[in-house]
């Protein structure tokens, strides 16, 4: 199986379910993500332009690999409606070997 840090989970939020689905479908079609889960709606509170904002958002959890990250980030930014989209990456340091093998098959070897 792959090395530590090779597999990633990318967290991204969107302003609507439709936007989340559109981005998710494109990332999977382009084989930049093996799987994307969409959770929502969620309530977010954050600072924006010196004021506390609150909004309903949809959380996307993207399963990918390190060598695909730059293209994945670029595609998200090109499709996203936010001026500053949340794109946060966490390494998968260990996981079900069968699942990681499936990710390898869907995303291609390095």
Question: Would you kindly provide a written description of the structure presented here, covering whatever features stand out?
Answer:
- 32% of the residues lie in helices and 39% in strands.
- It has 110 residues and is an alpha+beta fold.
- A four-stranded antiparallel sheet has the order 2-3-1-4.
- Strand 2 and strand 3 form a beta hairpin.
- The N and C termini lie close together (12 Å).
Oligomer: single chain
What's the helix count? 3
Q: Could you estimate the helical fraction of the residues in percent?
A: 25-40%
Strand content: 35-45%
Top-tier CATH class? Alpha Beta
**SSE string, helices as H and strands as E:** EHEEHEH
Mean pLDDT: 94
* Number of structural domains: 1
In a few lines, what is going on in this structure?
The chain is of the alpha+beta class.
